Amino acid sequence: MTPAWLAIINPRAGPFRTARWRRALVARIEQALGAEVVLTQYPGHATALAAAARTYTGLAVFGGDGTLAEAVNGMNLEQQTLLMLAGGTGNGLARDLGLTSFEAALAAAQSGQTRQLDLVRITFTQSAHEHSRLSISTASVGYAAEVVLLSNRFFKRLGPLCYPLAATLQAARQPIFPLTLRLDDGAPTAQRLSNVMVNNTQHAGNFSAFRRSDPGDGWMEVLLARAGFGAQLLHNLAVLTRTYFYATAAERTARTLTLELPTPQRLMIDGELWEDVSRVRFELLPGKLRCVA
Question: Torsion angle, CA of 223/225/229/233, rounded to 10 degrees?
């Protein structure tokens, strides 16, 4: 008989962990959930594992937002339930739902309670080819995307400190870029910005940056900012201290957002980076994901 849960573990998520620690984690998940456990072997593997797991009623995913997003892009959203086992650096969605510890996640699973969460479908053009991804938490063009690149390239071993350090350095070198944007049914407008963020959670990584956001409220939060070095540093400090005394721009709510980028930019979707993107469309999918909560 097939177990109800397939547990997908990203062994490279978060800080460095020993092989002994991973073996203990596998044993604990097998015992607590009666799950079959598989480990990812390369970027994108969680999507393939989830797509092949049609006989399971639930997917338990150990990793960060990137691993969760990979699994969501492969799972059967109509029939399967997602259980988050936070193990990454940011864990934005898990933080929103109070599932940042293994004990909290198991307690939620044992309670049998679930919640319908929104997803954001992101359709984008990269070098004349169109792609589509589902986002669970955070997407960006501009500053936040460049922070992720810088963090992954140079500071990942520092754990949670990697993002504040990368954010400070990127603030000093972030350029302004032109774009045309359209929010919902509004008219297209030409702007010059330093940062576009679309969030479905309060947390962007491990920072509570979008206080009014709710992953199941039927809206996505949009930040459209044009900020220099000083303004971006003030915004970062306000978020880090949770005083929120300054913001580079007011948050907006929307259900769709379209960006036309005459100068192709880097796109970040839940930690995954895509180069040379010339067009992006964000579309909210209300209540599309059933999640243990």
Answer: -30
Proportion of the chain in helix, strand, coil states, percent, rounded to 5: 30, 40, 30
pLDDT at 78 over 50: yes
Residues 61 and 139 in one domain: no
Give 9's DSSP letter: E
- The two three-digit tokens of residue 2, written as one number: 């097939």
In this structure, are 129 and 211 located in the same domain? yes
Q: Where are the alpha helices (DSSP H) in 128-273?
A: 143-150, 162-171, 229-240
Higher-confidence residue of 97 and 1: namely 97
pTM for the model = 0.91
What is the CATH classification number for the domain harbouring 145? 2.60.200.40
Structural tokens at position 186:
């509004």
User: Do 9 and 95 share a structural domain?
Assistant: yes
**Dist. CA 286–CA 276, nearest whole Å:** 29
Domain identity same for 137 and 212: yes
74 and 67 Cβ atoms separated by less than 8 Å: no
Burial class (CB in 10 A: 0-12, 13-18, 19+), 3: middle
Picking from 175, 171, 174, 191, the residue whose alpha carbon sits closest to that of residue 183 is: 191
- Residue 174: give the domain boundaries: 119-287
Sign of the dihedral through C-alpha 148, 153, 155, 156: positive
Instruction: Decide which of 112, 134, 164 is a domain's last residue.
Output: 112
Instruction: Tell me which range, 30-34, 163-167, 182-186, is most confidently predicted by mean pLDDT.
Output: 182-186
Instruction: List, for residues 61-76, the tens digit of each pLDDT value.
Output: 998 888 999 999 999 9
Q: 177-210: per-residue pLDDT in tens?
A: 999 999 999 999 999 999 999 999 998 877 888 9
* Residue 142 parent element (H or E): strand 138-142
